[in-house]
Every structure is written in structure tokens, then in C-alpha cells.
Amino acid sequence: MTQKNNTEKTAVATANSPEVLEPEVQVMSKKGDKRKIIESRQYMGPIPPAEEFKRYGEVLPTAPERILCVFEQDSGHTREMQSTALKAEIQRDKRSQWMAFFLIACTIGLTTYSLHLDKDIAAALSALVGSFMVFKGVFSQPQNDQNDQNNQQKKSKSN
Fold it and tell me: In this structure, are residues 128 and 107 in contact, taking their beta carbons and an 8 Å threshold?
């Protein structure tokens, strides 16, 4: 073990590349008394804590402003992508509803026409197939929504 005074090692975890550093162990001797001091720090997110942020400015004067600029650009891009995804999901849902309406209308029309022609078996089959499609659509939709919610929760926990 080595003797070091006033040394600290910071554990850093960012959103894109989580990295955790092993804490540095210090051994300080005081009249034969040995103590271990372990210090570890970590943060998550695109902007470092204030004291780290200040140190970036000491190394490169424009670094804090550049970090904030990149953060603002990333935030804007993220919001834009979420908005685009939401609009696409709304369009998909509308399209699905129109397709379902069309299929149900065709099924009702085919069943009615088959009954008009006294084709009871054809009417029963078309009604059965139509009912199957409706129930499949109704019961598969919540499962997709549940999977979407699970995926969103996993994403929010990882960030």
C-alpha cells in the first residue's frame, strides 16, 4: 500500500458510457496508527457537478460553455425525436382504426349478403372469421401497449 495525502479519485458515470472507477485507498500514518480512507464520487447525466464543471473551465476556458451548448443541442434533438415518434404512433393508430373499420364493414356486408342469398354456412363462416379478427385486434392491442410501457420504463431507468 502506498502513502498519499489529499488524494481523491472520482467515480464518473455518464449517460452514454457508464464508467465507474475503483476508489483509491489511502493509508495515513499518525504515530503508528494506521487508517484507511476511501473516497468515491459518482454522478450521472450530461452535465457534471458544479465543482467538476468549474475544473473544466480551469483547464479550457470555453469548456463549460461548450458542454452546455452540446447539452442544449442534445436536449433539443431528444425532444424532436420524441415528438416525431409520437406523431408516427398517432398516425399508425389512426391507420389501424381505419383498417379495422373497413374489415368490420366488409365482414358485416359479406355476412348480410350471404344471408340474403340464403347461404347460411357462408354467413356463419364470414361472421365467425370477422369475430375472430375483431377479438384478436381488441385483445392484442393492450399487450402491445404494455410492451411499449415496459420499454419506456427500461429506457428511463437506464438514463
Answer: no
